[in-house]
Design a protein that fits this description.
Mean pLDDT: 75
Structural class: mainly alpha
Radius of gyration: 13 Å
Largest sheet: none
Shape: globular
Distance between the termini: 35 Å
Number of domains: 1
Strand content: under 5%
Number of helices: 3
Low-confidence stretches: none
């Protein structure tokens, strides 16, 4: 899979929004807004590469990127929170 500059910018921008949103949804992680945004960007990159390979198709265009990024960021925040030992489950 090859990412163009435009798709990379979309992933980064949507990752910023998704990181902020994931930080609001997954409370108690203690990363702060900057940490949540960075985790959101990483979650957006992982989700945009992983979901199509798994055959998961939700929406189309920018809506798909927002959904993928939000789900990826939430999952990544939960995993990092569990690794840090602050998970509630």
């Amino acid at each position: 899979m090859q990412l163009s500059n435009e798709s990379l910018l979309v992933i980064l921008f949507v990752g910023l929004v998704a990181g902020w949103l994931a930080g609001k949804i997954v409370r108690g992680t203690g990363f702060g807004i900057i940490g949540d945004i960075l985790v959101g960007i990483a979650g957006a990159l992982v989700a945009s590469l992983l979901f199509p390979k798994l055959g998961i198709a939700i929406g189309s265009g920018l809506v798909r990127e927002i959904i993928y990024s939000a789900i990826g960021a939430i999952i990544l925040l939960l995993i990092v929170g569990l690794i840090r030992g602050r998970g509630r489950w």
